[in-house]
Design a protein that fits this description.
Layout lengths: L13 E10 L2 E11 L4 E5 L6 H9 L6 E6 L2 E2 L10 E4 L11 H11 L4 H14 L15 H13 L5 E5 L7 H18 L3 E5 L2 H7 L2 E6 L2 E6 L1 H6 L4 H6 L4 E8 L2 E4 L2 E7 L11 E6 L4 E4 L11 H4 E10 L2 E8 L4 E7 L9 E6 L4 E5 L2
Helix pairs in contact: 2-3, 2-4, 3-4
Length: 367
Amino acid sequence: MSTDSPLGQAGQSVCLDGVTKKYGSTTVLHGVDLELSPGELICLLGPSGCGKTTALRCIAGLEAVSAGRVLIGGAEVTNVPVNRRDIGMVFQQYSLFPHLTVAKNVEFGLDMRRVQKLERRTRVGEMLEIVGLAHLAERFPHELSGGQQQRVALARALVTRPRALLLDEPLSALDAKVRVRLREQIRAIQTELGMTTVFVTHDQEEALAISDRVAVMEGGRIAQLGTPEELYRRPISSFVADFVGLSNRVDGDLVGDRVRVRGTELPLLAVPSGTTGVTGARVTAYVRPEHVHLNGNAGSAGSWSDAGERSAVVISSGFLGPIRRTVVQFGDGSTVAAQHGSESEYRAGERVEVSFTREPVTVAPRL
């Protein structure tokens, strides 16, 4: 990645080394280890209360760690005050100064650092060009849309040439279309500037779309760290399989190193402890909708010896542009969703045969 940027420097490495955070007797982070390479964007992804925002605040210095170390650029900053860590931050609430213009809002941090006036103007102009707001420099926050305010906050965070950028759910207050457009702009700016970035979100689609790597958090720990493709295609636990993307929970039985799901044996990604190799162990398999296939030709299923357990009735079918998502119900009352091309349309009440692609799946003990 190029380090030649208008900021004059690229981002630096960020490291959490065994970071624990406690509030009284409650432990929120349990020895978290995480390292970002210079210029990398990592999303902290997880449900509410998993510790992702607390981890971000520990990096920023807004929370004192109970144990472990925080390092930026290889230097320990665990006990360094927040205003001396050289970090840019953007939060869900942009907190722009209502009485200052766009340009003055962006300039504020430079003014506090006593940067010379000519250099301030130059750097503010460069940053407003990067975020596409140069033409709005003299407007006030109340004259801007939510997306434009978000970009002002981003410019304000970046103009001070921080060593890293921390984003805490910065898009959650925006509508869906604006969120998609701005996350793409954030990613483009981050890549152009080579800025090391930690992005906190509970939106798994957002995390998969913009990250170099994603850290899925569960109960104050990192459940899995990997590229978006690794997390989606090879989740190492039922929690990750269930949280990242959509998965069907399908009852199955272990057969050695495979799981039998309605007449089809699927290879395993991860086996729950205590069930390894136990043929007949009852488990739940997590199957992606795109690996579920429907055959509306009922007559063609007559040759299948186990057609009964594959036979289902369509409950609903929704149009999603290039794809459709069809939900079917088996005779025992269980359901699965199939994702397929929108040219294939199924009607409610139609009988279909269900089959599964033999892609590896994650399983968990059946409750």
